[in-house]
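Dear colleagues,

For the upcoming journal club I promised to circulate an example of a predicted protein-ligand complex. I picked one with calcium ion because it came up in last month's discussion. The inputs are reproduced below in full, followed by the predicted structure.
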Amino acid sequence: MRILVVEDEMELCLSIAEGLRMDGFEVDTCFDGSEAWEIIWAERFDLIILDLNLPGMDGMELLHKISDEDIEANVLILSARGQLRDKVEGLDAGANDYLCKPFEFEELESRVRCLTRRKFIRQKVVLECDGITLDSKTRSAKAKDKELTLTRKELGILEYLMMHQGVPVSQEELMEHVWDSNADPFSNSVRVHMSALRKKLRGALGYDPIVNRVGQGYVIGGKTS
Ligand code: CA
């Protein structure tokens, strides 16, 4: 799951990003509204955490552009503007959620979890497929009730596939959602992590639940034959 944090209070921005990375998200940061628009326009995010008072371009203006251009991302407004009309204006402009500053990180975390899941499945923390369970809150996975020791990337890949059970997911798509923007699109990094993940799953389950459909991508669950 990829998140962009747009917030000009640099320290706050970086600490939100750090906290969300610890939760297993891939997080990019941006301190300026118009710069944020360029990034949002060029790349894909599952969630944008958006401050309203921003240099460059105001958060509300950015939000309108996101809606106008049909950018496919959830938006959580994080703002010191706490009046009811601010909230209504933000939600009317297409934001999915609104959190007022000051806030507790725990609350932000829980809303982020909710918004990043909502797009794919309804309110489920534990994903299940083929004897594998993955808890997106504790960032852990089990196969046949045995704990799997996975790296962050391996867990991210598995989570993304499990959220799209039966649907082939391409390397490019994994790159967009499981990697942050520092990733080199020409590296074979997805392949390397994927093969390590499949090896671990094979070890735990006795077979490899991930199928590589040539020309389509990787798929887990569903009818994979
Ligand atoms: Ca601000």
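Two points we might discuss: Helices lie at 10-22, 33-42, 59-68, 84-92, 105-118, 152-163, 171-178, 189-205. The two ends are 27 Å apart (CA to CA).

See you all on Thursday,
B. R.
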